[in-house]
């Protein structure tokens, strides 16, 4: 499944990869990038950029800082989640506090959502660009 995205978001996504938060770096370097199933960082999908995306699991992981608890941001996040779910994606959210205080539990939660390892074969060339 190829996911459409706004091409003008690519420079921002690249910059966000370079400027990840402490919690995003922790999840990426200490868990996600070591998995045998591929995750992408700061992936453009539609009009949005998600923190982490796994094609094989159809999974989006968002790490939310304190600003995500403000009313306007909550509404935006809900709209964004609805859009991503309309594409058949599962969206899970963790707070910065979850990452800082309960990292092992966050990793276990992600692990339990992933498909069985038998489906983790390397992606085809086409899938690698989705």
Describe the protein in words.
The protein is globular and about 35 Å long. The protein contains six helices and four strands, in the order H-H-E-E-E-H-E-H-H-H. 42% of the residues lie in helices and 19% in strands. The protein has 130 residues and is an alpha+beta fold. It has one domain: Endonuclease, Chain A, CATH 3.40.960. The termini are close together. The chain has helices spanning 10-18, 22-30, 71-86, 96-101, 103-113, 125-128; strands at 40-45, 48-54, 59-64, 90-95.
Sheet bearing the most strands, described?
4 strands, mixed
Distance separating the two termini: 7 Å
Q: What is the helix tally? A: 6
- Any guess at the CATH architecture? 3-Layer(aba) Sandwich
Strand content: 15-25%
Order of helices and strands: HHEEEHEHHH
The backbone outline, from C-alpha atoms, is globular
Rg computed from alpha carbons, rounded to a whole number of angstroms: 14 Å
CATH class: Alpha Beta
CATH topology group: Endonuclease, Chain A
The whole-number mean of residue pLDDT values reads 86
Low-confidence stretches: none
Topology:
Elements: H1 10-18, H2 22-30, E1 40-45, E2 48-54, E3 59-64, H3 71-86, E4 90-95, H4 96-101, H5 103-113, H6 125-128
Parallel strand pairs: 3-4
Antiparallel strand pairs: 1-2, 2-3
